[in-house]
Design a protein that fits this description.
By secondary structure, this protein is of the alpha+beta class. Helix content is 59%, strand content 13%. The protein is built from 4 helices and 5 strands; from the N terminus they run αββαββααβ. It has a 3-stranded antiparallel sheet with strand order 4-3-5, with helices on one face. The chain has a two-stranded antiparallel ribbon with strand order 1-2. The protein is rod-shaped. It starts with a helix and ends in a 7-residue tail after the last strand. Residues 37-44 have low confidence and may be disordered.
Length: 271
């Protein structure tokens, strides 16, 4: 009991001090609100504690607090009922119809593609056949042309060979005719020649043109002997010996025109 009695006065004193401090703070706040326009500070001393306060500006006007909106009621979710049997059957029927249409459309498209591929293959095959036919026709034409060219070349070669043979035969015949009648004409001219002085060993080359019957058309000296008297005597002998011996055939007579031979003075001529 003695100990509790001793502690009681201290507690009472602390409580009194605290009350005085609170009253002083309240008084200070009231005064500060009234003297808000003064820019000074005050120090309040309450016992062992010091409270320093400052004057502030005018207190701003308070805005009215907006009313809090009331929450909207949350709508209840609609309860969906399941489709009826008729609706299910109609949906299944529409789905089956759509599937059948899609299947038919796919089959039609596949058939159209297959038909297009077949037509394309047929066109390609037709072009290939036509190209092969054209190539075969061109090959046949080339082969025919080669055969014709070869046959023409063979015929030309045969004709050339025939002409060459005929020419050789004609040349041989001409040489025979010319050789035969040349000897006869030289003998006839020698018989008609009249010897001239200093003609021994002389000779000259003459060219004679004849017509049918052996008549002399022209006679001239191609290469003289150097003795004009002897040369003129030979020309005179040719004309005097006419008609000269010639073949009756006009074709053979052509071999003698012109006839060129060498006349040599006979051995028995005058010295």
């Amino acid at each position: 009991m003695t100990r509790r009695t001793r502690e009681a006065p201290g507690r009472t004193r602390a409580a009194v001090y605290a009350l005085l401090v609170h009253l002083a703070v309240i008084a200070f706040l009231v005064v500060s609100f009234r003297w808000s326009e003064l820019d000074t500070s005050y120090v309040v001393r309450t016992g062992p504690h010091v409270i320093q306060a400052f004057m502030v500006g005018p207190r701003p006007a308070l805005r009215p607090t907006p009313p809090i909106p009331k929450p909207r009621p949350t709508p209840r979710p609609a309860i969906h009922k399941g489709p009826s049997k008729a609706q299910i059957a109609a949906r299944q029927k529409a789905l089956a119809k759509a599937q059948a249409l899609a299947k038919a459309r796919a089959q039609a498209q596949a058939l159209a593609k297959a038909r297009a591929r077949a037509e394309q293959a047929a066109r390609i095959a037709a072009r290939k056949r036509l190209k092969a036919q054209e190539q075969a026709a061109a090959a046949r034409a080339r082969a025919k042309l080669r055969r014709e060219i070869a046959a023409a070349a063979a015929r030309a070669q045969q004709r050339a060979a025939a002409r060459a043979a005929a020419a050789r035969a004609a040349a041989a015949a001409a040489r025979g005719v010319v050789s035969r009648y040349k000897a006869l004409i030289e003998a006839r001219v020698s018989a008609a020649w009249v010897a001239v002085p200093q003609s021994k060993g002389l000779h000259c080359t003459v060219r004679v043109r004849l017509i049918a019957g052996g008549q002399v058309v022209s006679a001239r000296i191609v290469q003289g002997s150097g003795n004009s008297v002897f040369d003129r005597s030979v020309i005179a002998a040719i004309y005097n010996a006419a008609p000269l011996p010639v073949p009756r055939s006009a074709a053979k007579l052509q071999y003698l025109n012109p006839l060129t031979f060498v006349f040599t003075a006979p051995k028995g001529s005058s010295p």
